[in-house]
UniProtKB/TrEMBL annotation, chain A:
The keyword Acyltransferase does not apply. It is a multi-pass membrane protein. It comes from Bradyrhizobium iriomotense. Keywords: Aspartyl protease, Cell membrane, Electron transport, Heme, Hydrolase, Iron, Membrane, Metal-binding, Nickel, Protease, Transmembrane, Transmembrane helix, Transport. NCBIfam families: CytB-hydogenase, hupD, hydrog_prot. The keyword Lipid metabolism does not apply. Residues 35-239 form the Cytochrome b561 bacterial/Ni-hydrogenase domain. This is Cytochrome b561 bacterial/Ni-hydrogenase domain-containing protein. It holds the Pfam family HycI. Belongs to the HupC/HyaC/HydC family. Belongs to the peptidase A31 family. It is found in: Cell membrane. The chain crosses the membrane at residues 43-61, 81-103, 152-172, 205-222.
Automatic annotation (TrEMBL), chain B:
It is an enzyme of class 1 (oxidoreductase). It catalyses: H2 + A = AH2. This is hydrogenase (acceptor). Its cofactor is [3Fe-4S] cluster; [4Fe-4S] cluster. It comes from the Bacteria. The lineage of its organism: Bacteria, Pseudomonadati, Pseudomonadota, Alphaproteobacteria, Hyphomicrobiales. Residues 63-207 form the NADH:ubiquinone oxidoreductase-like 20kDa subunit domain. Its EC number is 1.12.99.6. Pfam families: NiFe_hyd_SSU_C, Oxidored_q6. Belongs to the [NiFe]/[NiFeSe] hydrogenase small subunit family.
UniProtKB/TrEMBL annotation, chain C:
It is found in: Cell envelope. The lineage of its organism: Bacteria, Pseudomonadati, Pseudomonadota, Alphaproteobacteria, Hyphomicrobiales. The keyword Oxidoreductase applies. The gene is hupB. This is Uptake hydrogenase large subunit. Heterodimer of a large and a small subunit.
Length: 444, 363, 593
């Protein structure tokens, strides 16, 4: 995993001043996060190419081109060969893609489901639709696919491609014969459609459905690459999602008075990975300067005492170690109504307060932040008294920070990378319990 | 074949073996099988008088092309089948008896050959109007059919009518003509589809049973693999033209006169399972493609309702549309494309306007 | 048309024959016989129905021939030919001359095959006693055979071997299709030698018939159910160019030609002599005339030149004869609403006013399956029909209110009345050979003889059109299809037309209405509809029923005479289809020429 987010070395900060891109920004200074792993990207492009070959050759098989006068050609033969070869490639790489989803990060699983039961998901889908209908000023920023894209890819690709593979292999088995392995595995298709001409027809319709999906997919990717702050096309090549501020320039402010934003890290630095949230907010403070309306806060284990801060804030980003049920070290971003689902705690004593209670208290008091974002990391170890963050979690500090930056940019908050490092007196955690002195020195 | 398929006794006598030696053979057989002295005469009797398998051939709603095809068989000849291989005890189309005498044969066969006769069915039963769209001896045909199926050893469904429903079952199937396997559910049914099936395929199935004493191996749709496991396309002699991309584009064009592939004229060879391109028709003289017309897929389920015989892509009837896949696909893709175009234009306009405002604001 | 006073003849025995076998399709006959066992009342019922016309609605007209061809697999091809003619008529499509020749050859081939198979395998067992053949003297059989024909299969040894095989077959106890036949019936008149000869020919015809249809296989791809094409024929011709092996070439033409020669030989040397033999032994059995001496009708067929369906261009006769007036052959017009009408008073259909007939254009077909009040049994177990009520799935077509007979006999009567030598001379010759007057034609025997004469005519016409085809190819024309109007986009928004043929069994026609490139309405009126028709409101009986009247039965429980007469019409019940609309709202515009 690319360690794109460790604390920028001095040299990197210096070089950040050099690279200015077409958007007038410093490329290295943009928020970036690693999203698409290499197998995901490989499969994407291999499958895309295969599908393209399949569609063109498939179309020609059903509607052959005008006859070539010279004999001795093998025109349809070659077209069919291209079709079958690409089909095999697609079948293999689609299978690989499915397998990778079992081993890869949670982004790699995203295209295999739609969380239909989550209200927030559908709200976000609606928001995205409104964005396309020119009814929203700004799209929301997502690290991976936005919910509408997720829905589209699931229905137009993830369901459709297996359908094409299954019907395709069934059709191939007609020529391969009823003793072939293709017929063994896929001959049941003809139990559904005894007249195989129907299978051809549905396969052909599937080709058109894929065509429509591709048109929309490519259009949306290009459009969003231009129109929204996040990178789209290049992400599927480099694997990294970048976020540009450029669209904020000249855009009318959302409201006249800037609303308060609270950037909060909670957790217990004494308990190994439990300290993640604090370390993340600490690192953020090291890297970036924010305007006055943003409060950066080490919330530690203060529990309900944080209520005041929340009440004052319109928007909240909280870093925390969260048991998502993912692999240790996996980062996940959760928004709004989903946040309380994950910030509950297994109560071991009456003194335990989860962040959920903090949020609930705010709501009861009538002033809860309107926008909630939780940037959580799956911990490995919570019970190592005095122990450091485990490496997997420590390596996610950087990405978590960048993620927060994504969100702040989405909210129209100016975030400036610090060129001059903070003075010690400005550090968030003092008295030797900052990350460097508390943990890192111990390692050496 | 012919007389040679008469009794075993007849065969060996013609080969010059004396009756005395024949009985010696039977005694030896009885001894070596440990059956005792009386068995010898029983063996002799069986070998002398093994009956031909009784066949009851019934007709439902049909056009009689299956019977007509059957009698076209070049090998074996129809006369040899009827005189020497099977006992065609009942067949409306050629039997001497009519009315009561004919019906009595059905009853007699059920009683005398219970579990031993083959029921061959041409056509199918209609279920609407109490089944009285096909009346047989004053009663619905479906009743007679079920009754005769009860004591049959096996059932053969001749043709696409009995196997799938065929033309009378085509949309909207006004009589509710029903394939026989929906009506006879407790007997093995050999489907020999086609409109009609090839003569030598039909007699091939019958003689397989009489020669090997068992039904042929069937595919998952109940058709004999020996004739229905490959498509017309797989054995078509014009396949090389298909692979080479040499097609007839219009009737009677140069390509037609050279016998090029009929794929573009709607040939359903690629999706039709039958023996037409190998066994061919009428003693191997020709078959549809060889005579210049594409295959219409007549041995496939529901082939009447897949759109025109001259279209490569067949019709979708779901959702109340009657269009083929390309028509639907192109319209849909075109609509989406147009939508994308409009959307892109609006996007560009808005962006341009936004940039201009940008510039204005900055000044 | 006189009423048959014996309808509903209550006294006397009621005889039911169901199923009638050795026909195509499903049919039931009931008769009443008086104390002398003479038939005084006849009831013919069509007992099947499929509804193919409604199935055709909404489909591509260029596909219609394939659907209609499956109306009947015995007269395979005739419905397809009628259909393509109907579409071509509606869309004004002209076919090339070669296509006309090839179509004629295919139709004539069907006539030859169908008549031959009908006589030997469907009809012969009503004249020939198979069991009696076992008693024949093979030498005498040979003498008989050689006295009537030069057909080579006629040696004593040949007949002896056949007799041995037949004997073994009978002794096996498993009589197959001959089981429970009416062997020994008093109505059989042939001596054993004639029976043996006939059985030999039955088997030879069974062998030969499969070869006749190779002509269909070559031009149409297969038989039964060869392929046809709107605008021409689908078999391209290429006699000696590149790739000729992929088309109709010299080898294909030679095959057709040799089959034609064999057809001519078989009909002239086997079929016709057998008819003469049978005629000579049955010359006193002249029952079964029915309507043939009164009302007959023929549409005409076999156009000499392409695209001309007027009477003068048709080689088979066209016209109507009423009340036996042979001096006046009346013209017919399918469009005239007063000429052809269909009645349903005794058919299982419903009109608002069933006392009136409806011209097919105004036709309604709404099924109404009801038995009359005097019927015995139940709706699903009919013991006896009530001819006073509804009793058949066949409608009752009438020409100017007259019931008519159609078929080979009708064609020959019209042809003779028109003094056409190709029909008149063979007829007169046959009558002379048998020593029978002209009126003998109006009988079951006459109907049977006419079929044989027509078979011979048809075989020779095949030679004529094959030669014509070759001559045209020689002159440089190999075209077989006109594709000018193949694409539906080239058709008018609405169109209608009709096509007709003379099927082996008689006059056949289809009507089509096309709208927005799809079939809007399709109707067939078929020979057996005319012949097998039930009564109309005036009580006029149909041809089958009329032919049975006044026929004596030697043994009423063994209805041989009924079968003999019914079979002489060559009934085809699958053909006598009609439209059904489940909701009664479809306009079944059946239009008969």
């Amino acid at each position: 995993m690319m360690d794109a987010g460790s604390r920028p070395a001095e040299s990197e900060l210096a070089s950040a001043a050099i690279a200015l891109d077409a958007a007038g920004e410093q490329a290295a200074a943009r928020p970036t996060i690693y999203v698409y792993e290499a197998p995901v990207r490989t499969c994407h492009w291999v499958n895309a190419l295969s599908i393209l070959v399949l569609m063109v050759s498939g179309y020609l098989i059903g509607t052959p081109p005008p006859m070539v006068a010279a004999s001795g050609n093998f025109v349809i033969g070659y077209i069919r060969f291209a079709h079958f070869a690409a089909a095999q490639v697609l079948a293999v790489f689609f299978l690989v893609r499915i397998l990778w989803a079992l081993f890869g990060n949670h982004h790699s699983r995203q295209i295999f489901y739609i969380p239909v039961h989550r209200k927030q998901f559908w709200k976000d889908v609606l928001h995205e639709i409104r964005w396309y209908a020119f009814l929203e000023r700004e799209p929301k920023i997502y690290v991976d696919h936005n919910p509408l894209a997720q829905t589209a890819i699931f229905t137009g690709f993830t369901l459709l491609v297996p359908f094409m593979i299954v019907t395709g292999f069934a059709l191939f088995s007609e020529g391969a014969g009823i003793d072939s392995w293709q017929h063994e595995l896929f001959g049941w298709v003809f139990a559904l459609w005894p007249n195989s001409h129907d299978v051809h027809t549905w396969h052909r319709l599937g080709m058109w459905a894929l065509t429509i999906f591709l048109m929309v997919h490519i259009y949306a990717a290009v459009r969003e690459d231009i129109m929204s702050p996040q990178s789209i096309i290049s992400s599927m090549i480099s694997g990294v999602r970048q976020c540009r501020d450029n669209r904020r320039r000249g855009a009318a402010p959302i409201c006249s008075k800037p609303r308060r934003v609270l950037l909060l890290g909670i957790g217990n630095i004494l308990w190994a990975d439990e300290g993640f949230g604090v370390r993340a907010v600490e690192e953020f403070h090291h890297r970036y300067a924010v305007p006055a309306e943003v409060t950066i806060l080490d919330g530690g284990t203060q529990g309900l005492q944080l209520v005041n801060y929340l009440q004052e804030s319109h928007r909240l980003i909280v870093f925390d170690a969260i048991d998502y049920g993912l692999e240790p070290g996996e980062l996940k971003l959760v928004r709004d109504e989903e946040v309380p689902r994950f910030t509950g705690v297994r109560k071991m004593s009456l003194h335990h307060t989860g962040f959920q209670e903090v949020i609930s208290a705010c709501c009861l008091l009538g002033h809860c932040p309107k926008h909630l974002v939780l940037i959580g990391c799956q911990p490995l170890a919570l019970d190592d008294w005095g122990g450091p963050l485990t490496p997997a979690v420590r390596n996610q500090i950087g990405p978590a920070v960048e993620l927060a930056r994504f969100i702040l940019v989405e909210w129209g908050v100016q975030v400036t990378p610090r060129i001059t490092p903070l003075r010690k007196s400005e550090w968030l955690l003092a008295n030797g319990i900052d990350h460097l002195h508390y943990e890192m020195r111990a390692r050496t | 074949m012919g007389a040679a398929t008469e009794t075993f006794y007849g065969v060996i006598r013609r080969q010059g073996i004396t009756r005395r030696n024949f009985h010696k053979f039977c005694s030896l057989t009885a001894t070596s099988l440990g059956l005792g002295p009386l068995a010898a005469s029983r063996i002799a009797n069986a070998l002398e008088t093994k009956p031909r398998i009784p066949v009851i051939w019934m007709h439902g709603l049909e056009c009689t092309c299956c019977s007509e095809s059957f009698i076209r068989s070049a090998h074996p000849l129809m006369k040899d089948i009827v005189l020497s291989m099977i006992s065609l005890d009942y067949d409306d189309t050629i039997m001497a008896a009519a009315g009561h005498q004919a019906e009595a044969i059905l009853e007699e066969t059920r009683a005398k050959y219970k579990g031993q006769y083959v029921l061959a069915v041409e056509g199918n039963p209609p279920l609407n109007e109490g089944g009285m769209f096909c009346i047989h001896a004053g009663k619905p045909f479906v009743e007679k059919l079920k009754m005769m199926a009860e004591d049959a050893m096996a059932v053969i469904a001749w043709g696409s009518c009995a196997a799938w429903g065929c033309v009378q079952a085509a949309r909207p199937n006004p009589t509710q003509a029903t394939p026989i396997d929906k009506v006879i559910t407790n007997k093995p049914i050999i489907k020999v589809p086609g409109c009609p099936p090839i003569a030598e395929v039909m007699t091939g199935v019958v003689t397989f049973i009489t020669t090997f004493g068992k039904p042929p191996e069937l595919d998952r749709q109940g058709r004999p693999k020996m004739f229905y496991s490959q498509r017309i396309h797989d054995k078509c002699y014009r396949r090389a033209h298909f692979d080479a991309g040499q097609f007839v584009e219009e009737w009677d064009d140069e390509a037609a006169r050279k016998g090029y592939c009929l794929y573009k004229m709607g040939c359903k060879g690629p999706t039709t399972y039958n023996a037409c391109s190998s066994v061919r028709w009428n003693g191997g003289v020709s078959f549809p493609i060889q005579s210049g017309h594409g295959c219409i897929g007549c041995s496939e389920d529901g082939f009447w309702d897949k759109g025109s015989f001259y279209d490569r892509l067949t019709n979708i009837k779901q959702f109340g549309i009657e269009k083929n896949a390309d028509q639907i696909g192109m319209v849909a893709a075109g609509a989406v494309g147009a939508g994308i175009g409009v959307h892109a234009a609006v996007t560009a306009l808005k962006r341009y306007a936004g940039k201009r405002d940008d510039a204005n604001r900055r000044h | 048309m006189e009423l048959h006073g014996s309808q509903g003849f209550k006294p006397g025995k009621r005889i039911v024959v169901d199923p009638v076998t050795r026909i195509e399709g499903h049919m039931r006959v009931e008769v009443n016989v008086d104390s002398n066992n003479v038939i005084r009342n006849a009831v013919s019922s069509g007992t099947m129905w499929r509804g193919i016309e409604i199935i055709l609605n909404g489909r591509d007209p260029r596909d219609a021939w394939a659907f209609t061809e499956r109306i009947c697999g015995v007269c395979t091809g005739t419905h397809a030919l009628t259909s393509v003619r109907a579409v071509e008529n509606a869309l004004s499509i002209a076919i090339p001359e070669n296509a006309n020749s090839i179509r004629n050859i295919m139709q004539l081939c069907l006539q030859v095959h169908d008549h031959l198979v009908h006589f030997y395998h469907l009809h012969a067992l009503d004249w020939v006693d198979v069991m009696s053949a076992l008693k024949a003297d093979p030498k005498a059989t040979s003498a008989l055979a050689q006295s009537i024909s030069s057909w080579p299969l006629s040696s004593p040894g040949y007949f002896k071997d056949l007799q041995i095989r037949l004997t073994k077959f009978v002794e096996s106890g498993q009589l197959g299709p001959f089981k429970s036949g009416y062997w020994g019936h008093a109505a059989y008149k042939l001596p054993p030698e004639a029976n043996l000869m006939a059985v030999a020919h039955y088997l030879e015809a069974l062998d030969f018939q499969k070869d006749i249809v190779k002509i269909h296989a070559i031009y149409g791809g297969k038989n039964p159910h060869p392929n046809w094409l709107v605008g021409g024929v689908s078999c391209a011709i290429n006699v000696d160019g590149t790739g000729a092996v992929g088309a109709i070439n010299m080898e294909r033409l030679n095959l057709v030609s040799s089959v034609i020669d064999r057809c001519i030989e078989f009909t002239e040397k086997v079929y016709l002599p057998d008819i003469v033999t049978i005629g000579s032994f049955y010359k006193n059995w002249l029952y079964g005339g029915g309507l043939s001496g009164k009302n007959v009708m023929a549409y005409g067929d076999i156009p000499e030149n392409a695209n001309d369906y007027s009477a003068k261009n048709l080689k088979l006769p066209r016209g109507v004869i009423i009340n036996g007036n042979l001096n006046e052959v009346l013209p017919l017009d399918h469009a005239d609403p007063e000429q052809i009408q269909e009645f349903v008073s005794h058919s299982w259909y419903k009109y608002d006013d069933e006392s009136k007939g409806r011209h097919p254009w105004d036709g309604i077909t709404e099924p109404n399956y009801l038995l009359g009040p005097n019927a015995k049994g139940t709706k699903t177990d009919i013991k006896e029909l009530d001819e006073g009520g509804k009793y058949s799935w066949i409608k009752a077509p009438r020409w100017r209110g007259n019931a008519v007979e159609v078929g080979p006999l009708a064609r020959y009567i019209v042809g003779c009345a028109q003094n056409k030598p190709e029909f008149k001379e063979p007829t007169e010759k046959l009558l002379k050979t048998l020593g029978l007057p002209a009126t003998a034609l109006f009988s079951t025997l006459g109907r049977t003889a006419a079929r044989a004469l027509e078979c011979e005519w048809a075989a020779n016409q095949m030679r004529y059109f094959q030669d014509k085809l070759v001559a045209r190819i020689k002159a440089g024309d190999s075209s077989t299809a006109n594709i000018d109007k193949w694409e539906p986009e080239s058709w008018p928004k609405e169109a209608r037309g009709y096509g007709f043929t003379e099927a082996p069994r008689g006059a056949l026609a289809h009507w089509i209405k096309i709208k927005e490139m799809k079939i809007d309405n399709y109707q067939c009126v078929v020979p057996t509809t005319w012949n097998g028709s039930p009564r109309d409101p005036k009580g006029n009986i149909g041809a089958f029923e009329a032919a049975l009247m006044d026929t004596p039965m030697a043994a009423p429980e063994q209805p041989l005479e009924i079968l003999r007469t019914i079979h002489s019409f060559d009934p085809c019940l699958a053909c006598s289809t009609h439209v059904m609309s489940p909701d009664g709202q479809e306009m079944a515009a059946v239009r008969v020429r």
